[in-house]
Amino acid sequence: MLEPKRVKRRRVHKGRIKGNTSRGHQIAFGDFAIKALEPKYITARQIEACRVAISRKMSREGQIWIRIFPDKPVTSKPAETRMGKGKGALDHFVAVVHPGRILFEVTGVSQKLAYEALRLAQFKLPIKTKLITRRDYKGS
């Protein structure tokens, strides 16, 4: 008599950030952008800090596009808690960033001002990044 085939069940883990990004690696909206060079989780607070830094430096001129969204929930248990008793409560949200991903885009301002604003945002990020310009950009 034939026995039914056993199905291996896969446990869901946190996962690893392997490989380069498969999409979101080219400038789509603006003229200048920040591109990630390392894999990392970026929190919603870090994204907001970058947005504030860019918009303040540009004094609300031009346009800013945020190309990442924190849609992965991260849980944590309180400090000095014993093991067990289930999973921890929701703590914050993160965006999973692979190398090559465009994080922020800017347009409508001079190249000097855009690079200065994006440079301030780079300091708020926990990863190595580089500033890039659209290929067909013609400075004014």
Report what the structure shows.
This protein has a domain at 32-74 and 91-133: Aldehyde Oxidoreductase, domain 3 (Alpha-Beta Complex), CATH 3.90.1170. Helices cover 19% and strands 27% of the residues. It contains two helices and seven strands; from the N terminus they run E-E-H-E-E-E-E-H-E. It has helices spanning 44-57, 111-122, and strands at residues 32-36, 40-43, 63-66, 72-76, 89-97, 102-107, 129-133. The strands form two sheets. Strands 3-6-1-7 form a four-stranded antiparallel sheet, with helices on one face. A three-stranded antiparallel sheet has the order 2-5-4. Helix 1 packs antiparallel against helix 2 (111-122). The radius of gyration is 20 Å and the shape is elongated. It starts with 31 loop residues before the first strand and ends in a 7-residue tail after the last strand. The model has no long low-confidence stretch (mean pLDDT 91).
Question: Which keywords apply here?
Answer:
four-stranded antiparallel beta sheet, alpha+beta, three-stranded antiparallel beta sheet, 140 residues
Write the layout of secondary structure elements.
Layout: E1 32-36, E2 40-43, H1 44-57, E3 63-66, E4 72-76, E5 89-97, E6 102-107, H2 111-122, E7 129-133
Antiparallel strand pairs: 1-6, 1-7, 2-5, 3-6, 4-5
Distance between the termini: 80 Å
The CATH topology of the domain at 32-74 and 91-133 is given as Aldehyde Oxidoreductase, domain 3
Share of residues in helices: 10-25%
Q: How large is the count of helical segments? A: 2
Rg of Cα set:
20 Å
SSE order: EEHEEEEHE
Question: What's the CATH H-level superfamily name of the domain at 32-74 and 91-133?
Answer: Ribosomal protein L16/L10
The CATH architecture assignment of the domain at 32-74 and 91-133 turns out to be: Alpha-Beta Complex
What's the overall geometry?
A: elongated
Structural class: alpha+beta
Total DSSP E strands? 7
Strand content: 25-35%
Could you give the order of strands across the largest sheet? 3-6-1-7
Given as residue ranges, the uncertain stretches (5+ residues, pLDDT < 50) are: none
